[in-house]
Design brief:
binds beta-L-arabinofuranose; Tachylectin-2, Chain A; mainly beta; 4-stranded antiparallel β-sheet; 5-stranded mixed β-sheet
Length: about 350
Amino acid sequence: MNHFISRSLLMVLLLSCSFNTAIAQSAKRTPISQPLISSIYTADPSAHVFNGKIYIYNSHDINADIPENDNGDHFAMRDYHVLSMDSIGGKVTDNGVALDTKDIAWAGRQLWAPDAAYKNGTYYLYFPLKDKQDIFRIGVASSKNPIGPFKAEPTPIEGSYSIDPCVFKDKDGSYYLYFGGIWGGQLQRWNNGIYDSTTQLRKPGELAVLPKIAKLSADMKSFAEEVKEVLIVDEKGKPFYEASNDKRFFEGPWMHMYKGKYYFSYSTGDTHNICYAIGNNPYGPFTYKGIILKPVDGWTNHESIVEIKGKWYIFYHDVQLSGKTHLRNVKVTELKYRKDGSIIPIDAYK
Ligand code: FUB
């Protein structure tokens, strides 16, 4: 008995030592930037400059006391708040509730990473949300004001599915919606527009699941074409297999243009990188180029990349304020390109 107690004590001591070591190690990671706001938890920042002001459309994380699982049930967000600021480093304003699930007719649960766009005097908010059948769809809401309140359309965008919408305005004025996320984002369950809840995650020897794209209609509320796959290839032009999970797409698509090239960035999810691939048009194919942002504290990693007053910035999140995966805080730091157009990888900690 005594032997058992002393072994247990030893285990507790060892465990607390390794736990403290883990804390000490993470404490050594000094963040290069601070949370933009600490009064609420925020994540998945999609930043835009509208009329010279910076607006951040992000998830609003809450603690719903739901145990963590691979489906992401613990990300149980119910509304959006738009953040705004006049300049990088300036005061950040939380503009209150912009859209609430209770005002979305088709809502089931989980308002995940949104994005926004402006066209002809109206702001459009694109948002992933599970419908009443627990299937992620993408909805659209509109407002005359960039901070909302937004009014949601009565049904999701027809033909939309999965998560993480990113709206991109091309140089000819056309708008495209990129979307998709695997695991809890359900992208692996969709084949040729059909949902199958029994579909398993791809095995290492199978081709990786690809993100999706569709051109938006003139009214910004529907797809103007069939959803297409966004092909990401390695330097030899070969598509990635699931085994390359440090490079293949997982979630968080974002598109920006730099010096005439299309930069498609995304999170690798279970390996926590933000990577990028370059193409010559919005549809791709995109050739993998490397890591933009190394893993941050917390499981998820999610980016947006924007030019503001001649400098480039990456908006991202980590869990500096809470230490908890589902209670994140958005941040921003400068992003730099080399002369050849490649991006200098960022470590968010010193
Ligand atoms: O915030 C919920 C999900 O976590 C997002 O949709 C993903 O991109 C990941 O950040």
